[in-house]
Amino acid sequence: MARVSVFELMRRSEENMGAVNGKVKALVMELIKQAYHEGIEVQITSGYRSAAEQNRLYAQGRTAPGNIVTNARAGQSVHNYGYAVDYVIVSEDGNQAIWSVTDEWRRVAAIAKELGFQWGGDWTSFKDYPHIDIGGLSWQQLASGKRPKVPAVPERNYLGIGDSGGRVEALQKYLNMVGIKCGIDGDYGPATEAAVKEFQRKRALTVDGFYGPGSLAEMNEALDELKAPAPEVKTAAKEEPEVEKEEQYQKDAQPSPRFKEAHEWVTEKKISDGTYPKRPVTREELWAMLYRIHS
Ligand SMILES: [Zn+2]
Fold first, then answer.
1. What's the CATH class of domain 166-227?
2. 86 alpha carbon – ligand 1 mean position (Å)
3. Where do the structural domains in the chain lie, given as residue ranges?
C-alpha cells in the first residue's frame, strides 16, 4: 500500500476548500505539509461556503433529513467569509476518511494553532473537532465588513516534500554540484526527497529526506570541498629552486628602468611606499592612493 502523496492531499484540499482567503489557503497548505512530514495524512473537506450552501447545511436535521451539523445560518459562519476550513485525517493510502478524534487528529489541531488558527475542538459549548479558523472577530463583525489579520506562513528551518520555490531550486542545484543527479524544477517531490536521502547516506547523516540544519551544514562542507583545489602532490622535480624564487623577488622589488622616475615620485609624494612595484594593486590600495591624491 503506497502512501498517498502530499501533492495529492494538497490538490484535493485546494479543490474542497474553494474560495477561501489566499493567506488562509497558504497556511492550510503549510499545515498539510507539516503534518505529512510527521507521518500524518490530513485533508481539507470544506472551506468557503456561499450563503446558499450555508442555508442548505442549516436546514439539515431541521427541515431536511440528516443530523444537525451547524447552528449558523447564512452569514453567521466564519466559513461564509473564507476564514475557516474543516479537516479530516485520512488513511495512509489516502482512500479513507478517519473521523475519530485520535492523537493524530489533536496533533493536526496543535500544528494549526501554532500557525495561527483557533480550533473548534477547544470550544466549550459546541465542540467542532474538524473546524479551524482565523479567530478574533464575531460573525457580526465579519458581516459588518471587518476582516481578521491572517498571519504569514512562518519560515521553517528545513525543507521537505511538498515545498517549492527558490530555496528548493537552489538545493537541487547544489545536489547536482556535489554529484547527485536531480531535476531542477523548484519542486521538492519524491525525486528530490530521494536525492536528499542519497546525500544524507553518502555523508553519514540521519537519512530522513528532510533538508534541515544538519544537511545544510554538510552541504556547505561538500561545496567547500569542491571549491578547494585538490591537495597538490609535490615532487622534487616540480619544486621551484629556492634561488629562482629569490631572483623573482628581487625583480619584483625593483621598478623597470623606464618607470624609475614615476617610482621615485610616488614614493616621495607618499602615494605608495614604493615596495613591490610590479605586483597588482588591490582595491584598498587604489582607494588609499586616490584619497591621498585628492585630500
Ligand atoms: Zn467548520
1. mainly alpha
2. 5
3. 6-143, 166-227, 244-294
